[in-house]
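tokens incoming
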């Protein structure tokens, strides 16, 4: 519902007429309107600039809604205002906490997209420089994308809103996935240089880094899942999604990444990794 100077004057008019609902209206007399405005000046000042009467405010109360619905309401208000005040010099500007929240949500989404583009590009260049192998660097990007995709999929499936707290989760997921990927691929490259055989290299890589990766991920996941015991929802969502991200990153690096290496790398010249040394 809405509150404006009009509502204040209606309430004052009804009060001065014995709380009769029939008088819940703007008085017909301009003099009476002026008197009621003076009597309620402290309240009126919240809705009208009493110095030059150039600005008025209409206060709209809304239920807690998501940014998409808020965007639709804002568009409807702007369209209705344009129609009502068409041909006049009156302009309507949306303000308030909900409008700020909507703009902040849009900023979070936009910055998230830009941040991921920069982060993924930087990670790819880092993997390429470290591994000195384009095929390995490309394959290494796949397990880094899987946990992020899973997180956003879970958020959409369970109706978890994208806000500042949940947006941080994807950065955590990317960091965990990259950490495990670097350990696995760097060890695989060393093992392949030694054995010149994909199966032996993968077996040695599991033997060298499999256990440490599993232990560290388990510790991190347990720490994150403890956050689900909190009563503050953003912390609950952060703990849950971060724990899921840690587990999915582990599975991606220990199951998906070796499968990708075994399927796609033999199609490349076998010397590609050895020559990179």
């Amino acid at each position: 519902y809405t509150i404006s100077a009009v509502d204040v004057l209606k309430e004052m008019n009804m009060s001065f007429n014995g709380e009769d609902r029939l008088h819940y209206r703007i008085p017909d007399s301009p003099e009476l309107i002026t008197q009621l405005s003076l009597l309620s000046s402290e309240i009126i000042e919240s809705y009208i600039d009493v110095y030059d009467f150039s600005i008025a405010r209409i206060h709209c109360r809304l239920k807690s809604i998501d940014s998409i619905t808020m965007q639709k309401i804002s568009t409807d208000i702007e369209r209705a205002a344009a129609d009502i005040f068409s041909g006049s010099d009156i302009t309507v500007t949306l303000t308030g906490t909900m409008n700020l929240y909507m703009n902040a949500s849009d900023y979070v989404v936009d910055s998230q997209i830009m941040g991921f583009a920069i982060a993924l590009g930087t990670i790819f260049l880092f993997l390429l420089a470290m591994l000195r192998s384009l095929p390995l660097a490309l394959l290494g990007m796949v397990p880094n994308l899987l946990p992020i995709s899973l997180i956003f999929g879970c958020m959409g499936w369970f109706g978890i809103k994208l806000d500042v707290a949940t947006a941080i989760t994807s950065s955590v997921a990317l960091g965990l996935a990259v950490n495990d990927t670097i350990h696995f691929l760097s060890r695989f490259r060393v093992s392949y240089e030694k054995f010149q055989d994909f199966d032996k290299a993968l077996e040695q890589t599991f033997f060298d880094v499999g256990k440490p990766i599993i232990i560290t991920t388990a510790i991190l996941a347990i720490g994150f899942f403890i956050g689900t015991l909190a009563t503050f929802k953003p912390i609950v969502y952060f703990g849950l999604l971060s724990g899921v991200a840690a587990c999915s990153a582990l599975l991606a690096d220990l199951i998906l990444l070796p499968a990708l290496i075994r399927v796609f790398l033999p199609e490349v010249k076998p010397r590609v990794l050895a020559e990179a040394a």
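note: The radius of gyration is 31 Å.
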